[in-house]
Specification:
By secondary structure, the chain is of the alpha/beta class. Helices cover 38% and strands 19% of the residues. The protein has a six-stranded parallel sheet with strand order 2-1-3-4-5-6, with helices on both faces.
């Protein structure tokens, strides 16, 4: 039993929205409707979601909304989890800590709010900070100038699907002529290079550019495609990519390892959660030709099984197990 109060603030992603937006679902005109759903702690349809923080909270609502041992934005149980943390949460959080309740916070916080959390962690042993991945954790520890013990920052990726949903996607994909391309935060020259290589290999594709696609369409095409090519920037978790893995989509990744954070370069990755079952990643585009042919060979021989990795690391159930371990650790 989790016996957990989960807190989130819808304004974390709603407050800065404008009336006129390129995507209608991101217009502030929908804020009242979204607020109504959040008041009832109801998850939104994927087509309404573009923001990573909103997607993270939505996945928690999908999995935990009907649970008897979890409450949202109410003090019912003994354990506390703040998904979002802003300045206005500070005094409430400190009040809970003074009662010696177990609390975890994150991964949704600003830089300044993270530094305030560091101060609290150094004052209270019943508080731990959550980070989305090892790369995000290391970045924030360095950002704090190592003012926090690394053991007090726990890694917890949000789950992307139920185990049985992921397992149902385990059917092998034998038609290599259908490719999904996910393009985010990289140079168009890199995209054009990849498109040229696909043309050379007579492989068709569908392109999804970050900010210009429907999440439901991405998931649908992930299940229909033989493989995906990721041309992405560094990620704290990479929920969209994790969802592709859960669809059993083998991935060829043009990896980015430099995370430029407030003018300082930290180590990072386009795929913070990864193993060889998921596909092949390269750090240099000059390696594309040889590695891509190796990827196609392994694809044809049904070597990749990304759903196995997703079930173990990225399912809702895996997320819950990690949460239990975190609360049991202090």
């Amino acid at each position: 039993m989790l016996n957990l109060n989960i807190y989130y603030d819808k304004d974390y992603w709603l407050q800065h929205r404008k009336l006129f937006n390129q995507n209608i679902y991101q217009s502030s005109i929908f804020n009242k409707y979204y607020s109504y759903l959040y008041k009832k702690n109801k998850p939104l349809n994927n087509k309404f979601i573009k923001s990573g923080p909103q997607k993270l909270v939505n996945n928690f609502l999908i999995y935990f909304n009907e649970r008897d041992d979890v409450s949202f934005n109410k003090e019912v149980f003994e354990n506390y989890y703040f998904l979002t943390f802003t300045n206005k949460d500070f005094f409430f959080l400190e009040e809970i800590l003074k009662k010696n309740k177990k609390v975890i916070v994150g991964p949704l916080y600003t830089n300044n709010d993270f530094l305030r959390l560091v101060e609290l962690v150094n004052m209270y042993q019943n508080l731990n900070i959550i980070s989305a991945s090892i790369f995000a954790k290391n970045t924030m520890i360095e950002f704090s100038k190592n003012m926090i013990d690394e053991s007090r920052v726990k890694i917890l990726p949000v789950g992307v699907a139920y185990e049985n949903q992921i397992k149902n996607n385990s059917v092998s994909k034998t038609e290599r002529k259908k490719c999904l391309i996910y393009f985010k935060g990289r140079n168009n020259s890199e995209l054009n290079f990849v498109l040229g290589k696909l043309s050379k290999n007579n492989i068709g594709y569908k392109l999804f550019k970050y900010g210009n696609y429907d999440n439901a369409d991405l998931l649908k095409y992930s299940k229909q495609s033989a493989f995906g090519i990721i041309i992405g920037r560094t990620e704290s978790q990479g929920i969209a990519i994790n969802e592709m893995m859960s669809s059993n989509l083998p991935l060829f990744v043009l990896n980015s390892k430099e995370n430029n954070y407030e003018g300082i370069v930290y180590d990072g990755s386009t795929v913070p959660f990864w193993n060889n079952e998921c596909g092949i990643k390269i750090d240099n585009i000059d390696d594309f030709e040889n590695k891509f042919q190796d990827f196609l060979f392994q694809l044809d021989n049904n070597i990749f099984k990304p759903y196995k990795f997703a079930m173990k690391e990225l399912s809702f159930e895996a997320m819950e197990d990690k949460m239990k371990n975190i609360f049991n650790s202090f």
